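Dear Dr. H.,

I hope your travels went smoothly. While you were away I took the liberty of generating a structure for the chain from your last submission, since the lab meeting agenda had it listed for discussion. I wanted you to have the full record in hand beforehand rather than looking at slides cold. The sequence, exactly as received, is reproduced here:
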Amino acid sequence: MSRTSIKAVLAAVAVGGAVVVATPAATAAPDLPTVVRAAMMDRSGPGAQSVREPLFEPTRTSGNWVFGSTTIPLTATAEHQSPQTALFIARRDRGRWQVELDGTEGFVRLAAQAPVLSEGEKRTFAANYTASQAAAATDTGLGLPWAQGVAWYMGGGPHGDSGTSRPFNSIDFSGGDGRVLSAGPGRVYKSCIRNGSALVKVVHDNGWTTTYYHMYNLTNLSDGSAVNTGTYLGHIGNELPCGGSSTGAHVHFSLLRGTTQTSVNGKVFGGWTFYEGSSAYGGYAERNGTRVYPGNGRVTNYGPSDGDTPGDYPTGTVDAGSNTYVNLRSGPGLNYTITGRANDGEVVSIVCTTRGGSVQGLWGTTDLWNRLPNGSFISDGFVNTGSNEPVAPAC
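The corresponding predicted structure, in token form, is as follows:
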């Protein structure tokens, strides 16, 4: 397909946010790859014209309905990258194709009508989209992609899908028996299938989506199969089914929310909070005051939490008094920058407690400040922990 034809499709009529193209009924089917590729180029953003042509990989058809995946391959010289991929649902209606990519309201709406999807898949896609629209908690409710209770190495700290690109939504892991397992329950899909490898995606009900790259000996589960936390997905390797490069066998583990690649900074997986550094592949993982840096020490998978309380951190309930929220600060005092807010009644996890600026709280004056998993601080004067003493270790 030429760049000219892609641009022509991108300029076609948009119906309900979908990319569509008018086609004679007799030639509609051959034009579907063009529409799908154009939709993927449109999603990939302004730099789309400089990347390789997206793959068109249909996996199911029924009458005028088609379901599959589309992936933008990487060049052979792309360093430590993971390809962009999306699921698509397509329907031919009155001589034209309507195409929607996953993670959008349009996809959920079209998927609900699609005979090529199971009822379980429809529920998962709907739940994932609904949850992805809510404010994202720091705790993903996911574990790490290997066996619970086992420690692996973090070979590369938070970085982008294209290495140094932002957001830093990916982490590289290796170790143990090399078996990569699903970080949480959901539905599994494979794209860019080449030479026994593929880019593996798991769509989770809680709004998150995780992808896994560089693996071999993949699961034989069919696309759309339900998986649980710990379901086998593949084995760490240096496989490059869709291009890129790899040094040392590992799994490139990435996080998305809806259609958005999401930074892992301040996010909790397997009981650990991950923080990015000043540059790609740096940063560290932290749990109960213990830090693990890339290539130095190992990270034990404590499994997924309930999505609200990371690992075994103590918790407290925010009490904003007559207000609806309490400001979070970049440090332990009111003179520090506001970094966010905690809503009245919200349960927060407390990593550690320190002394700082005095605040007139609901129970009197206090200089105690609690640090949350995302690195922000909240005055203990507005957090009901059930104790007048610190419930977490000193920062």
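Two observations you may find useful: The chain has three domains: 3-117, 139-300, 315-384. The radius of gyration is 23 Å.

With kind regards,
E. W.
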